């Protein structure tokens, strides 16, 4: 039986405060209310190692540690390697998507996106 | 002997001509190197303004959303009182339109990601400006260093100083002049 949305703990990683707020609001509307934020991959990784999360939504281009490096770090960590990761990014080239998939993302959304797209991807991951 | 004098005169004329060319290049290059940090600062200001405005718009959208949710709750309450059919019909219509408004608000909210996309493009412009800045500074230093009898150590020293200057937010001709002064140029 799938977890109820309000029980799923989500980490939203984006260097732009507006994007974090947009994603948080859309997630709230979709029923996901247990949300934490990080400004870059480095900060996210520190949080992931300290607290338990069920899902990560990350941007690609960020200072200090980008989203791709974050995904690679998650996949190479025994404790975190099974954590589902959704990449939400402006990088829309085919090779970018391929690179992200190779690194181990579970799904990929190109900005700007609609709430329906986010909902569909979330449902697919948690099915 | 006369032939030698002729060669020297020709050489001197060439040097004079070259000096003129360098002088012509130096001025626009120097001006550009001063303009670039200003342009970068302007772009950074635009990014800050965009972020601030986006948050203000999102605050307003959230306020409307809150009101719409309250209207939704009140309509639900009135419907639960089992009103007469005509009133129920109107209430159902308000509920439907209110939900439409909530969906539109969410869509508007999503479009605020334009700020992020615009920001990324502006960051790319900033990166290009930084590269241009580095190249220009390199050109300025090369111009002055060219023809001077400098050993490898001195050239490396200048390069190191250039890197230090480039790591700062702003560089100006003053920085360049100070650097050159340090090396007796």
Overview of this protein structure:
- Chain A has helices at 17-29, 41-50, 67-75, 94-103, 115-126, and strands at 10-13, 35-38, 55-58, 85-89, 107-110.
- Chain A is α/β, with parallel strands linked by helices and 127 residues long.
- Chain A has one domain (5-126): Rossmann fold (3-Layer(aba) Sandwich).
- In chain A, helix 4 links the parallel strand 4 (85-89) and strand 5 (107-110).
- In chain A, helix 2 packs parallel to helix 3.
- The radius of gyration of chain A is 13 Å and the shape is globular.
- Chain B is mostly helical.
- Chain B is rod-shaped and about 120 Å long.
- The model of chain B has no long low-confidence stretch (mean pLDDT 78).
Can you summarize this structure?
The complex is a heterodimer of chains A (127) and B (185). With 127 residues, chain A is α/β, with parallel strands linked by helices.
Keywords:
heterodimer; A: 127 residues; alpha/beta; Rossmann fold; five-stranded parallel beta sheet; 43% helix; 17% strand; B: 185 residues; mainly alpha; 89% helix; rod-shaped
Integer count of domains of chain B: 1
Estimate the global geometry of chain A from the Cα principal axes.
globular
Low-confidence stretches of chain A: none
Percent helix of chain B, as a range, is over 70%
- Assembly type of the chains comes to heterodimer
Report the end-to-end length of chain A measured between terminal Cα atoms.
9 Å
| Class based on secondary structure composition and strand pairing of chain A | alpha/beta
Structural class of chain B: mainly alpha
Strand content of chain A: 15-25%
Biggest interface found? A-B, 17 and 19 residues
The CATH superfamily of chain A turns out to be Response regulator
Strand order of the largest sheet of chain A: 2-1-3-4-5
Q: Report the CATH topology name of chain A.
A: Rossmann fold
Radius of gyration of chain A: 13 Å
- Name the CATH architecture of chain A: 3-Layer(aba) Sandwich
